[in-house]
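Re-run requested by the PI after the first attempt was lost when the workstation crashed. Everything re-entered from the original request form. Ligand of interest: guanosine-5'-diphosphate.
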Amino acid sequence: MDAASSNSVTFYDFLDRMRNPASIDLVGSIKSFIVSFSFHATNPVNDSKRFQDFLLTMESAIRDHPLWAGSSEEEVEQALEGLEKYVITKLFLRIFASSTEDVKIDHEITNKINLLQSFLKPEHLDIPSYLHNQSSWLLAEKELQKINASKAPREKLMCILNCCRVINNLLLNASMTENRVIAGADDFLPVLIYITIKANPPQLHSNLKFIQLYRRQSKLISEEAYYFTNLLSAKSFIFDLDAKSLSMDKLEFEERMEAAKASHQAAPVEPNAALISHHLTNIRGPPSYPFMDAQAEELTVRDVETLLSLYKDVVTKYTSLRRAVEKLNIHRPEQIVQKDKIGSTREVESEKVGIERSSAE
Amino acid sequence: MGCSSSLPDGSARRLSGMDQDSAVAPDAKNLRVKLVLLGDSGVGKSCIVLRFVRGQFDPTSKVTVGASFLSQTIALQDSTTVKFEIWDTAGQERYAALAPLYYRGAAVAVVVYDITSVDSFTKAQYWVKELQKHGSPDIVLALVGNKADLQENREVSVQDGLEYAEKNGMFFIETSAKTADNINQLFEEIAKRLPRPLTS
Ligand SMILES: Nc1nc2c(ncn2[C@@H]2O[C@H](COP(=O)(O)OP(=O)(O)O)[C@@H](O)[C@H]2O)c(=O)[nH]1
Ligand SMILES: [Mg+2]
């Protein structure tokens, strides 16, 4: 499935239509909506409501618009997806992780997961051994870690769904080869929790909140809502996790947590380390590179997928590390703060393309 | 070990071709219903749902259904259709506190126990109380005593199940996912009890 590229084609199609002089009224509404956002203090609940209402208004405007006359339901849908992505990308800095409370929760979760990563095993969540599958797990983790690759709520949600799809396939395959009942949520949730801990996806709390508030409401239903709820539930479980949450001796849990804290504190902390932490989020987590001792002749074609994913993983980590090191060497802390604000997620194409028309105005 | 392989009962009223999500808002004729499953691990929730959703298929066919989210559309006598979107929840004790995230906004909650386990019946009562406290006020509640085929091991009488359900304004039924007994009836009865949006 080539969702990503068909997605950007759709998005460019939306931008094209918006450059058409006939859409001047729609462009006017979009611009004044974006501008009106800066008149109010940020308030997630109000902002979300205003955005959702705006989408509904625009939906009927688009359905009635000459430019979409005779269009299929699908084309209208695509326009709405384009609109969501465009407006949210413009407002992103205002609305994403906008409260200090959210930033704090994100940090707490990231830190807690860092500690848990150092000792948590699948057995602690009673994940049965027939579901232990390093390459599936790694794929699922990678999907979740892509969550900041886009600013669009739809694309963020897709990362969650892709991760859950990998887990589902693992469960289905296991139930077929093991010839047992598909255990459903009893198996699914523990695996998702474990994957989430292994992946430590960036700004987990803020991303979930953001999707909930800004994904078009009629699209966060059914299967999408179910898997979204599961990640919400995994986050909540991790946030509240204590000795009683795991199949682990209470004392041992506490000792392991203490040890993990001590070793994290012992690591030399640069004064500006936190500021560049987002460059490093891709580097954390215990790497597992199952092919380190492999010989070429042992490999089969089926290993290609895993190898490719590992290759991408290594390159991503290397690139992040290099970038982080460059930042440390070249920039002074203040400059890093600035960079942090604009660059905290990879820029998407939509930022660089406006819906300004050069001729029509 | 599977969910038994006896033939499903002969209801020919499932409409599998209709499962794709339509963008149109649900109307009076075509309802989309969120149904959440609650109950101890092992009482047979997964088997009930698989029986309901896959019952008509050749049991050997590989159906790529999600392991924990399933949907099935049924047609009622009055030519309305109901699409059940079935949300499974993890039954292990350590996840009990997460249940509200799942039953929030559900139109139906099906609480399942195993008639051969008093403990599972006690747990079912815990879920009923939870739902009464925190579920949406107009939620349709069903109490299901499963594994009715295991009469010789019965620990919970029909009477106890029925009385508890009546006292709490719930619909009650005993089922067997193994023999498919009462599985379709369960979902049909739920469909009848759904509040209908007014036809405009
Ligand atoms: N005899 C009998 N066994 C059942 C019935 N339903 C489920 N089981 C068995 O009970 C076990 C647990 O079922 P499952 O659906 O996985 O329970 P869940 O944990 O609630 O999803 C499995 O071994 C099933 O084969 C039933 O109606 N009768
Ligand atoms: Mg189950």
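Saved to the shared folder this time. The two ends of chain A are 40 Å apart (CA to CA).
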